[in-house]
Amino acid sequence: GSFSGFYEVFSSFLTTGLRFLINQQICPALQHSSLVLLNSLLETVPVRTPVDQYVGIDYSLLSDPDVQSDWMDMEFKGMFYPLGNENDTLLNTAIVPLLKGKERMVYFSVSEYFFDSAMYSYYKAGVLKTEIPEKKMSVDLAYLLRTTFFGAIILLTPTSSAKEAPLLLDLEVTSAPRCTIKPSGITISVSALMNVILLPPNAKPVMLSSIIMESRLNAKVSLKGKKLAIKLDLKRFRMYSSKSTLESLALIPLQTPVKALLQFTVMPIINERTLEGVQIPLPEGIDFINETMKNHMGFLSVGADLHFYKGLREVIYMNMQPLSPDNATVSN
After folding, report:
1. What is the DSSP secondary structure assignment for residue 61, as one 8-state letter?
2. Is 239 helix (H, G, I), strand (E, B) or coil?
3. Are the C-beta atoms of 259 and 144 separated by less than 8 Å?
4. pLDDT tens digit sequence for 137-150
5. Rg (CA), the chain
6. DSSP 8-state symbol, 285
7. Tens-place pLDDT, residues 304-328
8. What is the pTM of this model?
């Protein structure tokens, strides 16, 4: 009884001292140790790496990871660039995504800039173009092209055949496509020029017309392991002439067959590449499972659980171990 007051004072002093020691010394030490281990884990993430022979991607951190007691936040650049000129990059004007969720272990966002920088890089690399020879066209389309009024030229006669003078469609995107993400879906806007060319034998190619094409593609994003893949579908399409209203009216019968041609010849080539996907910044030994996706204004959010197919400790220690003398190589 007589020592109760002393016990209370001593207990209060001890509790305050321990709290001060934990907050000022132990917690910072643990946080520093965790950041060291985190950095070792992040070293397994490819930061700046080629995607293919045309473009690369930069996943460098924009700031140090923000580590708290129950969550961690990391901000990656997520920018594509043309390998031919790595300094030619698109300015990032996208909004900063705000993520909220507790149902999954991890959440990450992909802004419109991610897709825009990819399309900008491919456009700058000069690969957004193709040629379609007459043998890949439908008979109806070839017939329409041979009987359509192009400016001041009336094309031979319907009896002229591919053997006499084959047709060639030369397609090229005229500006970098743009991505728009809304809760209702993801769309890609593309402007291109289609040159209709006649290839008479033993003579120079004859330009019949240059047709402006504007199209809108629907994009469906999926997550496969560590890769973000996209499937594109041509929805809206229109074509017109920059020369005259009369020529634009003459192109109306070509709208449907040209759209069908693009769907069966160009879109499969594009989707073959986009469905291969691009790797997202996830450390070695970890995959995503139980993915959920949601569209927002200006960005896409993905929630997922983590599957460790390698032990976390194994991955960290593997990157912390120095090179052993047995594994070292000496060049003569």
Report:
1. B
2. strand
3. no
4. 888 888 888 776 44
5. 30
6. T
7. 887 776 655 665 565 555 544 444 4
8. 0.77
